[in-house]
Amino acid sequence: MKVKVLVQNTLKSMDILYSKTISSIAFIPAIVALVFLFLSVFMVQFDYSESGKAIKSNSHWLTLKDASTARSIISTITGGIISLTVFSFSMVMILLNQAASQMSNRILEKLIGNRFQQIVLGFYIGTIVYALFLLSTIRDIDSGVYVPAISTYLLISFTVIDIFLFIYFLHYVTQSVKYETIIHKIFNDTQKSLEKKCVNRDVHEPSYPQLSATIIYASKSGIYQGFMEKPLLALCSRENLVIRTEWPSGTMIIKNTPVLSVLNKNEISEDLREEMTGLINIHGGQNIDTNYYYGFRQLMEVAVKALSPGINDPGTAILSLQALGNLLKIRSEHYPKHEIVDQDKVARILVKERTLEEIFADCIYPIWDYGKQDRLVTMEMHHILVLLCIHTTIPVFHKMLDEVKRSEMYQDLNLDVK
Fold first, then answer.
1. What pTM did the predictor assign?
2. Where are the transmembrane segments (predicted)?
């Protein structure tokens, strides 16, 4: 049992490390650079092969016999691409810093994780690696000069591609850091996660007769990120357990806080307790793909930051508010699963999820607290709540609409209309 717990903890640590690695800004550039390194080795071998020599003998324009000329070409290209790479990295860092200061530092993951930017930077670095390796293969020996002409001309082609990539990179980066683009991306990711997690069309919160219960406590402090579903479900089926999570995913908990309850047993072995504890995910970070609530939170934070006195950008707050309105409409029509069943259709895991009312209170009320004195925010809040009330009869929407109508700014707007 101890070995099994150790294996589970190792697998969980590897999974976290894997997620951090593939989301790193250096992951794609490193892969692309390795591809270019292997390509350079292959091209040099091909250059000196019989096939390469035949191609060069039949194509006189590929002939490059002067070693100093080849070195000058490769050195010039290497220096130019290094400058291009430094400038591109600097531009990305400046834009990231601007986005973090103007919106929220928690949206940086959206910008850093952009695959196109990473591929472009990887292409730059790969060209540099290719050029440096190529430069090291040029030799002057007694029997003649070894100049990889085909590889050198291929390097020139890569350089031309780099220049065009840089031109498009300038356009792409300036567009990707626009506030509406970032908000739209957060909205799309949250919507996909929401539709994946919330598959029920009606509310179904299962109840289980709790005759006895055993509490499983958190092994450390951090953000509760859920659990490893398949191993925990298999464990519950094997041991004939029914468990309930005590917190929704994304909740900050402290060490020794109750996190799971075994509902059908009042006592379990210490080894089983450790095995269950090892299947609970408690760590930092926010991933919208696994928890749509983070998307709601990020949009709320962007709106609140935009309404702060130092920034005073109600337009960005309105964009976030519109995205939240659309997501609340979707969430009001779709509900998450509250139970996970095994192969025999027996409910084994009862999952605690945030209600629509809780999400609304966490994400809309803070925006209203900061923006109730702003005319534009008040008008947009009223408009979105009216639309939500048309499509649903959920009381929290109507209650908030009444509060907006009673606000001083809304009364002033009515006086202006009169």
1. 0.80
2. 21-44, 73-96, 116-138, 150-170
